[in-house]
Amino acid sequence: MLEAMVKPLNLLATEAIPAVPRRAHPVRMAFLYVPNGINMVDWTPKGTGPDYELPAILQPLQELRSGFQIISGLAQDKAQPNGDGAGDHARASATFLTCCQARKTAGADIRVGVSVDQVAAAQIGSATRLPSLELSCDKGQEAGNCDSGYACAYQFHISWRSETTPNPVEVDPRQVFDRLFGNGNGPEMQSARQARDAHRKSILDFALEDANRLKSNLGRTDQRKLDEYLTSVREVELRIENARRFAASLPDYSKPTGIPKDYEEHMRLLMDILVLAFQTDSTRVASVILAHDGDNRPYPFIGVSAGHHDLSHHENKEEKKQQITKINRFHIAQLAYFLKKLQSVPEGETTLLDNSMIIYGSGIGDGNVHNHDNLPVLLAGGGAGSLTAGRHWKLDGKVPMANLYLAMLERIGVQTAKLGDSTGKLENL
């Protein structure tokens, strides 16, 4: 948001437009998913309200304490078997944003429900270049049996555009970048990419003339802001190119999912691009799968050599639970990185984090028992002043997760009476 835009926006405010929340900056919404539940003993804070004690897993968020709230007591009843038997990992993912019961099938007749992000995208997506972004560190699988008779589509997707159609995920940061900053024309994008690679030019080189023309009409503050934005875009693109060249120069090996090779760098690169997407108002809705439910990758770089899913069945053995805590804390460190990035982007007297709503959580509570109540849920951001951050909020009973989503939809300007198994909007958010 440049200072030069403020006057035109004020003039537009006098025109007749649909009744949506009147704010200086748009509200963004993102959902980050982590698999296999959490070591809830090291997740759940002691105390409630603003004076709670930050637990071990959440320690990487210490500097951001005033920018998020932990919500205890939310549940996904439709992730329970409800007569369908085993398959908690598939149901956890499929239900996380839809709050609907997934039809148990490994065939093509999959069915669950429309996810909250797509409810939002359907109503506000026309205001941005991309209605929504679906990112993942794991390639999605569309076919096959992945969990006790449930189709793989359930386990590798959390965003569903219709009851029967999951949104494909983007795992390659370069492809996401091209979608955001290419011209949208397939053949032209391919031709531009070839020319860029051949001459080692940045996407920005093709737009510098326009950027310089714009810059000449801006004030000093706006010129500096434009320079910062162009620099940040170039930095991300260079990191993508470096990651690709590094991978290509390695000897033959079994490549991990996506680019780059390093899992942490992959997550952070996707988060960097998501910040750019929100900053440029290219989209206001996104979902990110940090790892699919049932994922069994080891984490040797933090001292955990056993598989994540195997460890989640910890049998109440303290050694295994502490290794789960290490994995959980590692993922939270990536969330902290993302939130600090959002916080570093100014929007007038506020920040991008102030104008965002970021859900972080899992569709399973304790991985050992596969429960779907008292879920680990964290809500970050200020929602343009509409959220009460800086607290631990403990709800009474088993409150449907869908009630939280209805309250978030209202804050982004989307009105809907029902979502999945909702019983009403969550008040006092």
* CATH overall fold name of the largest domain: Alkaline Phosphatase, subunit A
Point out poorly predicted stretches.
Answer: 12-22, 248-258
Biggest sheet record: 7 strands, mixed
The shape is globular
Radius of gyration: 22 Å
Q: Supply the CATH architecture of the largest domain.
A: 3-Layer(aba) Sandwich
Provide the helix percentage.
25-40%
- Number of separate structural domains: 2
Number of strands: 13
Please describe the structure with a list of short key phrases separated by commas or semicolons.
single chain; 429 residues; alpha/beta; two-stranded antiparallel ribbon; 12 helices; 13 strands; 37% helix
Write a structural description.
- This protein is of the alpha/beta class and 429 residues long.
- It folds into two domains: 19-171 and 257-411, Alkaline Phosphatase, subunit A (3-Layer(aba) Sandwich), CATH 3.40.720; 175-255, no CATH class.
- Helix content is 37%, strand content 13%.
- It is built from twelve helices and 13 strands.
- A seven-stranded mixed sheet has the order 3-8-1-11-12-2-13, sandwiched between helices. It has a two-stranded antiparallel ribbon with strand order 4-5.
- A hairpin with a 2-residue loop joins β9 and β10 (350-351).
- α7 packs antiparallel against α8.
- The model is unreliable at 12-22 and 248-258 (pLDDT under 50).
